[in-house]
Amino acid sequence: METSKYFPSVETLDEGYQKTFKNCDELLPTLPQTKGWWFGQLFQYHGFWISGFCIRGSMLNHDHFKPRSTDIVVATSPKCGTTWLRALVFSIINRASFDFSDHPLRKANPQDLVPFFEKIIHKDGSTSFVDGIPSPRLLSTHLPYSLFPTRMTDDTSACRFVYISRDPKDVFVSKWHFASKLRPKELPPLSLEETFDLFCKGVSHYGPFWDHVLGYWKASVESPKKVLFLKYEDVKKEPLGCVRKVAEFLGVPFTPEEENKEIVEQIVKLCSFESMSNQDVNKLDKRYQQRPVSNSDFFRKGEVGDWVNHLSPQMAEKLDQITEEKLQDTGFNFH
């Protein structure tokens, strides 16, 4: 059985977890696999390319996680605004608990306040840690919607998902930069062209990207009270309206008194790229808490349309063609 700082040893697992780990260890060698963009392998699992660690997380979720009606899941495909959405949702839900001048987001990265579900479901070798999080639990995930158990996704469950999508051209560029930062120095760098080819073929973390987006889009159409679907570009253009929309969806709309106090404006300002990237905690390097990813790695530009500085017209056209084909007759577009 695999052990590392991420995987507990078998001796520390409760009996149910031991069974799930064994099932996962037997499954992984049977799956199609390829090298990840930065480290480790990606496995093709139920149509998506996912690391072994996160496949385990999904299986542990299916086998052991007990959702609550108050659970809120912040869902994204990587590099679509995960850090931003975590910060916004945390601020909206906890707006009455903290003063903006001394807010937790000034001292902690959003991943510490809205923990990564695929990771914490492993913690302590049982559900004790995740069960111990007080309600409402705010959880973040990159898992496709189809990989959640029906007890979380059917209409009898009150837990809610907030999802954000982004133009695939910007997603690819951001993902390539991120992979370049994390890729071990002993490995040859991934060229933009090589990585672009993989992305177009759907071979990227939690890819194919378009399938990930469409899973949540269709769920939001079928169950609008369960899944809120946002576009990164809309949040950049109309942040105040989007924050109000999220609050309404989560059942905590802003009161007239809060509007008069400009609470929405304060949330938008606190969670802005400029504010977040300039917090000391988000300038920490990779040695912080022995993480493979530094807090600063989550902040690059946060812009819309930065792809024009990296992709050739031919590359942009190819991605647009793939996107058009993937979205045909779905009722969704990125514009």
Automatic annotation (TrEMBL):
Protein name (database record): Sulfotransferase
Family to which the UniProt record says this protein belongs: Belongs to the sulfotransferase 1 family.
Organism field: Gossypium darwinii (Darwin's cotton)
Transferase recorded as keyword: yes
Entries under Gene3D superfamilies matching the protein: P-loop containing nucleotide triphosphate hydrolases
Keyword Acyltransferase: no
Pfam families: Sulfotransfer_1
Class of the enzyme per the UniProt entry, highest EC level: transferase
UniProt-listed Enzyme Commission number(s): 2.8.2.-
